[in-house]
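Exercise (ungraded).
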Amino acid sequence: MVIPLKYNVRNLLVRRTTTLMTALSITLTVAVFVVLMALAGGLQSSLTATGNPLNIMIMREGSQSESVSFVSRDTLQVIKYLDGIAKDAQGNPWVSPELIVLINRPRRGQSQGANLTIRGVTAEAASLRPDFRIVTGRMFRPGLREVIVSRRISDRFQDCSLGDKLRFAKGYWTVVGIFEAGDSAYNSEIWGDINDLGQDFDRPDYSDVILRAADAGALARLTDQIANDRRLHLKAVTERQYYATQTATAAPIKIFGIFIAVLMAVGASFAAMNTMYAAVARRTREIGTLRAMGFSRGSILLSFVLESVFIALLGGLIGCLLALPVNRITTGTTNFVTFSELTFNFRVTPELVAAGLAFAGIMGLLGGFFPAWRASHENIVTALRST
Amino acid sequence: MMGKPVIEIRNLSKIFRRDSFEVVALENANLTVEAGEFLCLMGPSGSGKTTLLNIIAGIDRPTSGELRVLGEDVARLDEDRLAAWRNAHIGFVFQTFNLIPVLTAYENVELPLLLTRLSAAERQKHVLAALELVGLADRIRHYPRQLSGGQEQRVAIARAIVSDPTLLVADEPTGDLDAHSAEEILDILSRLNREFKKTIVMVTHDPRAAHYATVTRHLEKGQLLPLEPESRQVAER
């Protein structure tokens, strides 16, 4: 049997101010950790959640992103009739040529701008993205200089609301619809008719071609066939792979987050350690008495470590609660692969909360161990004599 | 009242080393305590009486000499076995009571039983019996700060006897109490000795305490003085 937990809990209640102050230092550390990881996690998931597993992106050999790739109109005709491509509702090959251009637009309330991705598409594009849906307004119509804007971009950038006139390339474009695309990277784009945009930007070719493979086997064959066809000089990657490789964008945030959290954790651990040393000093005679009664060194050690972990978990829990409101808040950053704005939501997942609590627990362990060790190795006679 | 020896001490010494000089706390002590005795150790401060008590109780170790308590060579037990031995055989009563302030009287008394295999129901029976014996059955939910000094010491005695140890050690149990409370405590200890056959070793300054003991031994400067023939007595009360 060990020293009952109520002994620790009541001691913490007796010293409630100290307990709370110590817990607070851990609260702040855990809150910062959770917020930064929610940021990195949201960014990562917006990229990894993009794409249907059977979608293949065909780009020029050697290009790292859609924006630097090009595929000629002739090549599209070759691709269209490859074997293994799924058929769309009309029975045609399910293929979507797309054009990517970047424009610089100011954010709302700022004069400073950021690069926005404009995607020129045909009617097929939307059907290839299962999460795509128009939330207000309607789809653009070809030939009328109309665009649709993702809701997150619309919320964050000037002249991007429904009905606004957006000026880029050779004139004004009317925003006729606002769309959403699940949690994917398409949430950071503006879409318009591929031919209208091609004319305005003097881009007769396409950037890339997206197609849907009939099944997993066809997907593998198509990827091989395209990569090995020396006439085409193209490469084929699955849409998922393409976006997953861009998650490198999240790495600096993650590293920064862990760095800051570890720095703060060192401080918080020392706070816990200080508190626990004080607790041990105050209760030296009690410890001597417990030892005399026959409680082992191990049970004293465990008791004080648990007390410290308890404070830390309390702090961690408050920290997670403080961090919770950032969940689903939208923010944006520059995608370092495409050099364009990427918007995403903070994601506070149950796993992240668990990680935050575990992190708090570790701080409690580290802070509590040495004071507890001292408590358990106090000489009984000396401890009994202390006041 | 004579039984087999509970404590046998031969040539026991304890030397504290502080920096470069040595303090002899106890020198060549020889002592035998029979089962059922109530031994009172007296002497001025620094005479080594508490050191002797601590060594007997297994919370301090001798520098040299032989020591058997309840047949066990306690100086040779390792830390964990010694702790288990204390829990099973020794009840402690301290001058400053040493109750845990955040635990109630009941919970304080229950503490030593948490180290045994007793079920919660059995523990409750023992705790209530021990508190009954010291006359505090109506104070079980009180915290130490809600009790008087005398009551606190009675709770401490209940805690010392709850696991039914053979040997009770008491270090100045009346030192922090008024005369009336002190008498109560000595009465209880004496009763435990007479009715429950507990062997008791008590360190005290209090000359009245000696009346309750069956044997009184004096210490001076680390020397256990020889037993005076008339000092072994059966307490009158």
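Further reading is listed at the end of the chapter. For now, observe: The longest helix of chain A spans residues 16-48. Chain A is about 50% helix and 20% strand.
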